[in-house]
Amino acid sequence: MPQIIGGLLTLRSDWNDKNILKHIKDNLKNVSSENKLNFICCLKKLACEIKYSENNGIEIISNKENGVLIYAYFKLLRMLQLMGNAPAIEYGKYGIEG
């Protein structure tokens, strides 16, 4: 059975832009395994994908040159596609790698 994709969508954040990825990573360490987030989209700041390793490591991949909303949209569609739930689109052509 595929894992449920968990996400967080907000308009803004009070976290400092300079340390926002550190704050996200620090707070994700306290989340239980059944409540893990796979992506975060804060429309005024950033969007990111969260990947977990087996040794409880956390990797955060955030948008760089892409707009926040479009990055989050394509990243979510890519996650769904990998689960077999989204239409076949060549996401690499839009700057979103798997």
* Distance between the amino and carboxyl termini: 20 Å
The coarse silhouette is globular
What helical percentage do the residues reach?
10-25%
Approximately how much beta-strand content do the residues carry?
15-25%
**pLDDT under 50 segments (min length 5)?**
none
**Which structural category fits the helices and strands?**
alpha+beta
Task: Please outline the major beta sheet.
Answer: 4 strands, mixed
Q: With helices defined by DSSP (H or I, 4 residues minimum), what is the helix count?
A: 2
Record the strand order, biggest sheet. Answer: 1-2-3-4
Number of spatially distinct domains: 1
Radius of gyration: 14 Å
Return the average pLDDT rounded to an integer.
Answer: 81
Sequence of secondary-structure elements: EHEEEH
State the total count of DSSP E strands.
4
Describe how the helices and strands are arranged.
Layout: E1 7-10, H1 20-28, E2 39-42, E3 46-52, E4 58-62, H2 68-82
Parallel strand pairs: 1-2
Antiparallel strand pairs: 2-3, 3-4
